[in-house]
Amino acid sequence: MNTNQEFEDLFAKLANGSITKPELSRLLILLDTQNLDNDLIQKIKLELKQPTLLEDTERVKDIASKARNNIMARTSPTIKGKSRSIYRPAVWWAASLILVGGLAIQYFKTTNQNTPATTNQQATVQDIAPGGNNAVLTLSNGETIVLDSTQQQLVSQEGALKYDGGKNVLSLEDSVYNLTLATPRKCQYQVLLPDGTHVWLNAESKISYPSRFDDNNRTVSVEGEVYFEVAKRQGSKFIVQLGNGHQVEVLGTHFNINSYSDFPSIKTTLLEGSVKVVSTDKTTVTLKPNEQATQRKNRSTITVGTVNTDNIIAWKNNKFNFEGLRFEEIMSQIERWYDVKVEYQNEVPDIEFYGEIGRQNSLLYVLKVFENSGVKLQLKGNKLLVY
Predict the structure, then answer these.
(1) How far apart are CA 20 and CA 17, in angstroms?
(2) Could you give the CA distance from residue 294 to residue 260 in angstroms, rounded to a whole number?
(3) Which of 54, 178, 228, 255 could serve as a FRET partner for 269 with CA atoms 20 to 30 Å apart?
């Protein structure tokens, strides 16, 4: 386990009151591995270590409030007409660590004093685990295979389908099969196509491809969000069909396509190489690295802009990145990854978020980010209510 992951795991224990004293000591040590100013690290350590805090709950609250205001002042510029909250990963961890520090200290205080448990039990909200590796493979004859959730990649080779560890999935005959790999909600998967192209599928996505490509043409079709690292093959185009006449043509490149059915636009983002985006009326635009083409599904026009590609492919690296996204777009990611239904009780909040948080965290853990910004959320079963 890397130090960042260990830090997050220990922090989660701190937040829910299950951390032990040795784990708290380890957490304090791991603070040095975070990307924070040294002065800030020392302040956090000092505040969590002060023995006087054990007897002074009000002082804990005062320190937490001042520390949070100090951190947010460093990171939150004012934007005219909007409230904008910035949550850079390490800074958010630090602010949250100070905010829940009082809870952890209070936990140790009551534990040491052997305080009896209260008889007024509050209703607990059932948490929802994050998604993971899973997918369903459908053959041209309609046969379906649920892939091994302990694996993360399907390898398509002539004559066979295997997991990347070598375990056989299916033996194919010499004839060409049409294959469809689909990820339900709460699922992601990878596939190595017959030509060596590496593909990542986000939740609720799909790719259809042949078990063997022609020498001069490689064509696949996708739905949802898919990231490609296309293998170069001289003289052989790689074509991604997006439905309704939209498609992307490449020779060898790295790019991301977002074409979820409930989004009004198709977004193609180029990281490396070159791609040609083709609209319904055959209008074409060639992208350069760090450019994104946006196509309205009911129009033929294509607009191009420069983007931060790290934000676009954060999902591929098992992270949420909220930079520049509308609140509805963020909630769509939450819906797909945790398989919940978001319901707005009032108007959609007009708030923008920045920063990243790992997708390996539970839903309630992720929701703390939004609650700290003033958005009220309530989880009822598989419904997420936004007030």
Answers:
(1) 9
(2) 13
(3) 178
Residue type, 271: L
**197 class by beta-carbon count within 10 Å (0-12 exposed, 13-18 middle, 19+ buried):** buried
Question: Rounded to whole angstroms, how far apart are CA atoms 249 and 219?
Answer: 9
Q: Which residues contact 381 (CB under 8 A, 6 or more apart)?
A: 126
CA distances from 192 to 130, 145, 158, 202, 240 (A): 24, 17, 12, 15, 15
Residue 349: name the closest of 367, 374, 324, 380 by CA. Answer: 374
> What's the angle, vertex CA 278, arms to CA 272 and CA 209, rounded to 5?
75
**Burial environment of residue 184 by CB neighbours within 10 A (0 to 12, 13 to 18, 19 or more):** middle
Pairwise pLDDT comparison (290 vs 94), residue with the higher score: 290
Last residue of a domain, one of 112, 147, 179: 112
Q: How far, in Å, CA of 317 to CA of 192, rounded?
A: 17
Structure tokens that stand for 77 in this block: 């510029």
| CA distance linking residue 190 with residue 177, whole number of Å | 19
pLDDT at 240: 97
309-350 per-position pLDDT tens digit: 999 999 999 999 988 788 999 999 999 999 999 999 999 988
Describe the crossing of helices 38-49 and 57-75 by its angle, rounded to 10 degrees.
Answer: 170
CATH of the domain at 262: 2.60.120.1440
Question: Is a pLDDT exceeding 80 seen at residue 153?
Answer: yes
Range of the domain at 70: 3-112
Q: Which pLDDT score is estimated for 84? A: 41
Residue 191 tokens read as 């596939």
154 and 216 both lie in a single domain: yes
- Domain count of the fold of the chain: 3
Residue 363 tokens read as: 């839903």
Rounded CA-CA distance 236/299 in Å is 29
